[in-house]
Amino acid sequence: MTQIEFQDVSYSNDEKSILKDISISIEPGDYVSVMGPSGSGKSTLLKLCCHLISPTGGRILFNGDDLMQQDPIEVRKKISYCFQTPTLFGETVEDNISFSYAIRKQNVDRERVHSLFSRFNMSQDYLGHKIQGLSGGEKQRIALIRTLLFMPDVLLLDEVTSALDADNTLIVEKAIEALNGEGVTILWVTHNPEQGRKYAGKLLTIEDGQINSLEELK
Amino acid sequence: MNNANISIGSLLIASSLVMVSLLFSYFQKLKLEKETIISVVRAVIQLIAVSYILEYIFGLNNPLFTTLLVLIMTFNAAYNASKRGKEIKNGLLVSFVSIAVGAGITLSILVFSGAIKYQPNQIIPVSGMIISNAMVALGLCFRQLSSDFKSRRDEVETKLSLGADILPSSIEIIRNSIRTGMIPTIDSAKTLGIVSLPGMMTGLILAGTSPLLAIRYQILVTFMLMSTTAISSFMACYLSYRGFFNKRKQLQ
């Protein structure tokens, strides 16, 4: 069954049309790179997928049912979104990690936390660090770890490596590739053409709020 | 308590103090002469009117009428507070309920503890103090809520996208707004007697009450202002944060 399906989806905001008649199908386990110029509607596409905004036209189906009719909290637990600029909250890295467990009324799974830290090449000492002293790359990796504490069905990445150096970018790329190997569907918005083609199975290009092309890469 | 027997003559002479303000405005070209005169005339007319109304109500000594007047005061305060928070959904209703509950609980404790009696000459001035304090606190809460939901939009959306409900996603903003509403009352309590002798205490002392007794009233006032501000700010923030989300739990 198609996992996410856009049926003639449009989105406009303050009388400005951002996405127009988008129709795409994403299968479970797909790895889709989304490319296009700034302001073409890529981030809006991701926010629509995870129920943070509602389409102004058309329908989005998730596992065959209308996404907007499903419980937004449950949808967001299954379709996780990682922002371009990571927003860490609270005072320490630990606050960001414990939040996901607290909202599920669960104790922190230390083993899971440790395995994610090592997957993103970070020491567990970071847990006690103040968020103010972290670099952009560290913040983004913490944000990714925070998103992945509970394995999502779909992972939406919004230019998450745009502020990272080459080493950190490679760490993130490898971690995401591994996740995709474990069955997680990936939608990755990127500006980097090389990154867009390197790992993905499909390349979706958006221009002026419309699909320009959908290319099969593998 | 006859020390403050101000005669009409003394008041008329004291009115020359307004001239000081007018002369400043005129020579410094502040262009405030017209507004000064209007404000002074308004103040005098409003105070004369309210003194007759209070004299009448105190004479009636009817608990129902007293309650009605307190409700009218609450409505006026709610109306003013809601104007400070135009982005707050149902601002007037939220303000009215919050101020009414805050003032209601505080007045009930005061009456049941025997600190004051449910008589118009005690209930109305006390209500005036707590309701106006709650009004200012709510105005601050609303402004903080609106500005935080704008400036911390990414934080709220990040928490939503992690699968949090709207309350855990907004809790930091709610707490910050309640704090903003309460801080002026807490700060003014800290400086009582050091920086300021509040109006009520000054009034009692001028009217001849011993400072030793006047402070008892002031302590009572401080307690009741804190309780009303806390309850009203808490209620207003918790009642209004939902208005920043749509029914699909998306930030508007």
TrEMBL record, chain A:
Keyword ATP-binding: yes
GO molecular function: ATP binding
Pfam families to which the protein is assigned, alphabetical: ABC_tran
Protein's UniProt keywords contain Chaperone: no
Keywords for this protein: ATP-binding, Nucleotide-binding, Transport
Top-level taxon of origin: Bacteria
ABC transporter domain mapped to chain residues: 4-217
PANTHER family documented for this protein: ABC TRANSPORTER I FAMILY MEMBER 17
Protein name as annotated: ATP-binding cassette domain-containing protein
Taxonomic source organism: Caproiciproducens faecalis
Automatic annotation (TrEMBL), chain B:
Family of the protein in this entry: Belongs to the UPF0014 family.
PANTHER family per the UniProt record, alphabetical: PROTEIN ALUMINUM SENSITIVE 3, UPF0014 INNER MEMBRANE PROTEIN YBBM-RELATED
Major localisation: membrane
Top-level taxonomic group: Bacteria
InterPro entries noted in UniProt: UPF0014_fam (IPR005226)
Subcellular location: Membrane
Transmembrane segments: 6-27, 39-58, 64-81, 93-116, 122-142, 192-213, 219-241
Membrane-topology descriptor: Multi-pass membrane protein
Transmembrane among keywords: yes
Annotated protein name in UniProt: Iron export ABC transporter permease subunit FetB
Pfam families hit by this protein: UPF0014
Cleavable signal peptide: none
Tagged with keyword Cell inner membrane: no
Record's keyword terms, sorted: Membrane, Transmembrane, Transmembrane helix
